[in-house]
User: Fold these one by one.
Assistant:
Number 1:
Amino acid sequence: MTLADILAGIVFVALNAYAVLGGADFGGGVWDLLALGPRRERQRELIAEAIGPVWEANHVWLILAIVLLLTCFPPAFARLGTLLHIPLSLVLIGIVLRGSAFTFWRYGADEEQRHWGVVFAIASLITPFLLGTTAGTIASGALGEARGAKGDGFYAIYVAPWLNPFPLSVGLFALITFAFLAAVYLTLEAQERELQEDFRRRALAAGLGLFLAAVMALLFSLNGAPRVRDGLIFAAWALPLHLLTAAAAITALAALWVRRWRVARAAAVTQVSLILWGWALSQYPYILPPDLSIAGAAAPAATLRLVLGALALGAVVLLPSLYYLFRVFKSSVRAT
Amino acid sequence: MSDLLAARSQMAVSLAFHIVFAVIGIAMPLMMVLAERRWQVTGHAIYLDLAKRWAKGTAILFAVGAVSGTVLSFELGLLWPRFMAFAGPIIGMPFSLEGFAFFTEAIFLGIYLYGWDRISARAHLWAGVAVAVSGVASGVFVVIANAWMNAPTGFELVNGQAVNVDPIAAMANAAAVSQTLHMTLAAYAATGFAVAGIHAFLLLKDPANAFHRRALEIALLVAAPAAVLQPLSGDLSARHIAVHQPVKLAAAEALFRTQPDASLTLVGWPDVAVQETRFAVEIPYALSLLAFHDPHAVVQGLDAVPRAEWPNVPAVYVSFRVMVAAGTYLALVALWAAWLAWRRADLAHNRWLLRAVALATPMGFIAVEAGWMVTELGRQPWVIYGVLKTQDAVTPMPGLVVPFVTFTLLYCFLGVIVVWLLYRHIIRSPAVPEWRGFYMPPGSGERGAGSST
């Protein structure tokens, strides 16, 4: 394993953390939009209280992944920015609206309160969908050098790669994944039995939806993402990974069924992380398939070594701080 | 509108928007920590109310700053992929460090904002200190990256490729110290005077309000030292660019011809076509004196480089004058307030000072925006000075006017909302009748303690 491999792995760890932490904050927005029934307002309040102290810190995982990418793998960053300009710009608009609307809603509240709640919820729906679409486009291998150089039309270069069944199905998959995570976490956040039950039902439904979306994405990958398909079916590590992922998924649903919330949370995080690493392994050694490899995109070794050192130092500050944040806001053992 | 101009405009709008929130995010936490500390020392609820109110404003402004900063980190790739492909390995390091600093800032701001009842008073204050320190660190790292664009180093150029990359040398570039110092002081001066100005304005309307008096004192305590030191840091910057970026200085001063004994133009209008400054009011020898601390020093003019490599001279020239004028105003008001405080006068009773401080509310931010226009426009046509031209860095994607207009509308909308929310919920007198007077509790060690009205 080379230095570049290690740093690519760290970028992916940051993305993984963003998915299970920041992703769940988006998922909370989805449940805000879908709040139903007599406890609608209490559901929304619970979601906002759960997100409030942590969403900004969770969001930084994405920024960390981006700055590490632009430092360690600049050609990949440049190509992503060029070919995915449109979906990434839309992601940014979603990020801006989600974050500011949430803050306006929580801090500027009075009669106009619900307007901001709606903006927050809709932005929470669109952003993960487009982030997932971006990931799907990368996995599909549509971001090759050749495409840009061919002199195709605007649509062929800047739209066609992502406006495709496979990337869009990954977008849907990401959206449901984040909603699933949020519902599972919220069973632990809820103080009251009734709210726990609300989110238990939502988590179970989302878990089922997740399975269906995964099947759909896999079907589209047959034509749309040959590398992912081959990696996930034929590689030596494929079967054990599928078994582990399936075990985690079944554990999460079973634990929800018998109301073992902590077990469900651990299993859900494991399940989502395994899916992400399955993607990463399936396209290794490429950072942007089909032609840009990790080694080919890597910055000079001097830069990589320094970044690795800075990461080690930064982790000494970051990890205890994060631990403290989550201990203060997420540790209290609540209603059983 | 050409794609290059659209990309530059989108970057300019994004930076101009973000910098306001970034600057507030650097200085506001210090003020809220000072207010909280005063509360812990004096036990007076006014300071707690002040800390909480400032924290609430910080929460709104920080969130908008965080998301607009995210936009910028992506825009580096969306608009300038060729710049990042070249510069990433060299100057990505401070961006990565900024990532960590911003992480720390976000974590402890969450703890500070939501942790009033969850952690000890001491831990809460330290969380605020962590926000203030990491906020400064974030700003410093980002400005170091910008300084490298002005004074690129830490690599060798071979056939258009960067080799022998040394990220540490790139961070220790010649512009780093003067730029980070100037920006950090600007953050404290601009934010401090904006807050002081708002409370001065409210004091003019409601002179006996103890809440605004205390707010004014803390805000001036942060703003005034920075505003007084800023001209000295500006001198450092000017002497730096005189040596390392002479074209920028020449544009800022509209100095068309290289000359010794250069005089400083106070006002005037640079006419690029005839290469003369019309209606110029000049101080002889002053430019040579300021740039090199020698009245006879030769100052390089715009004629030192081909016409195609000139920046937009009138824009840089005007921006520079706006920055210096606004900064000078803040420094003079700060000196006046300091002199009054030294003579133990009651600042909140001096209506002329209050008027001057109220007028200073937007001045710091005007200076910040104008200063960035000097440094960014003054570097054109280069994105990396002398190495890569802006036109060679832009994305090949056509139709960039669409994202430019979209993000501009989005930011205009957000800007209006933020101002309105601050006006509605933060900037108003607290509904505590006894604070309306000069009341301060007996034995609190405050001036005027025990007195009422």
Number 2:
Amino acid sequence: MKLLPAAATAGLLVSIAWILPLEAHKPITSPYTFAEDVAPILRERCATCHVAGGPAPMPLTTAEETVPWGESIRLELVAGHMPPWSAISGGKRLPHAEGLTARELNVLLTWVTGGTPPGDAKPAPPAPSSPAWPLGAPDLTLSLPEATVAADQGEVTREIVLPLDAAARRPLRAVDLKPGTRTLVRSAQILIKTAGQDPGAERLLTLWVPGDVPIALPNGVTYNVPADAQLLVRMRYKKTWEHEREAMSDRSELGLYFAPQGAEVVRLSTDLERFGLRVLSVYPAAGAAGRRLTLDARLPNGDTRRLIEFTARPGWDRRYAFDPPLNFPAGTQLRASDPNALVVDVAAAPLID
Amino acid sequence: MMKTLLALALVLAGASLLAAQGNARASAALPPALPELSQTCPMHPDVVESKPGTCPICKMNLVPVRLDASWMCPVHAVVIEPQAGTCRLCGRALVPVTVSLTWTCRGEVNAEFLEPGVCRDGAPRIGKRTLRPHGNHNPQHGGQFFMAPDTWHHLEGTLPRERLFRLHLYDDYARVLPPAALAAMNARVVTRQRFDAATRTTIEDEAFTLKPSKDGRSLEAAISRAALPAAMSVKVKFKPDTPEYRFDFTFRELTKEPAGATLVARRPAGSKDPAPRAQPRAVAAAPVETAPAYTAPTEPLPGTMAELLTDLGKRRDEVRALVQKGDFGAVWVPAFQAKDVAVALEPHIDHLPDQARSNADPALADVVRTAWQLDAAGDTGNAEDVGQAFSLFTDAVSRLIGAFSATQP
């Protein structure tokens, strides 16, 4: 909320701050400006989605675009809703999953409540353009059939089964999704499914959400693809308020990245205690939305390390990949706060680096 | 044109109400340099942009407004001055408010301009300062002032006598609500209550219905003698179909109407303002506490890691003391100072061992986030919200201190 043209009245407001009665609201004057302080944070941390034509309905690349959303930004940040997948703990080993730093949060909150001063109106540098395929050109591209969302529909989920021909049945190091209509595709699950398989045994390859950056498996680790495998894609489409009552369509693509033969990724198994293990990633199981999840490693010497702690935000399921993976000696026990709510992907050591 | 008319409608609506409240006109003195034009929504005055456009909430066209900081008498809302000082009518200290600046002409009822200039009759336009919504959140009767979650109603609780609780209600311009609005409210003051863990409900052991005062300008209730410090909650439904809101007051002493020491001497001859009765002379002024200074620092605070950690603990203790005293309106100051310490500590985490860093990293951001939660909760005066925010805040501070302390020799 901009109360006053900050540059003109900063001095006055500072003096006011000294004499306000205790119970009064306080005029906080932001020493931070959009141009100098806020824009770099938004560009670095938010512009993947909050950009014109992006999945978020409000671009936040200029002061003019951002100021009217000041109060919304305050509410989202104070509630911890944005960015939506912040790992509460995990440090630098979880790239692309960190929340805002203390300084970034403070700058944004001070600015939105302190007059939203624009600063020097220098032309904003262009928002970073995300490559269509962040992992590089895929080894194989598969087009999904066109999906339409009718004018009277707001959110729909579609399941698509893609058969894999012999050329595609190879070990994988990553599967990525390139959304056709960025403002419509809200999330996607990509799984391996085999004929006659129990649905619960579907093998998850990818959890895609807007703004996430895919991380491929390290060398020597693969998702194996059985001979009768198919790809199951669950696409969740949701319109933003800008497109309510509009019919929309999407034609997304999958990018497959093949890997040389290697150790297969497996879900956490007690058998692994006998071996050294490498923790690759974790993700919330179905039904875990809204729960606070933790994963600890108890080392053979008795020390315990917290590997990750996060709250699974409904609608924003994603995979938290450790990069590089975490190596543990034989005898290490992994303990999830709720083994049924957290899936841990590990690979047995030794591995080829 | 439509935008201008809407802006003027807003300004005039405020002006007419102010005019109805008193017989003095706001000072025409205006600063030589005009504040920049801003753009605001006629329906959502919290939306203020620097350029024309549409309201992100309701899509109405934004309208221009010229905002400025001014000083207003806490009692005589018509007295709005460009500088700090005392009220021309009663001598009370003026309080800071946000106003919109417009210019009018004598005899031209609908003329309202955003710039100074010359009227049709050749006379210079007359400057006017009109209070903006939420421009004044100052207690007007020496009590505790809160904003309701609907962000329109504002209220102030006072304890003028040991057996009397009074509730003053205002709109978003801090104007006293009309008697009819007060009479339609369903409000009570709860002086004794307890939380029953078994049923997870609050049981009120002693509550008093708040009824309109004789002059109709406030709600009040005769309560049992309040032992100081006295904690009590107001629970109010502003209208039958609105939710019940709770506001928690703590009075360390009986409240006193703010009064200037030179009250009588400054009252202009012929003023209709009644002379105060039975007011002790010279010492009549209620103790006006001044907020501890807080300005957002532009650079992280200086200090060693140990000094910063000590400071952080001190700020947490200050927040705790204020929360325990029920001084919710003041909580934001040490909370903000604590988050500034967290920002200053952030560069130090690079030197922490892996595990300590993993613990400190999220705690840093949580201290900042929860400090702002405390700020927001303190504004609305709900003890439960303040308590929850404080619990999260103190947890984050403890985690942060713990993470750093583990590395200290």
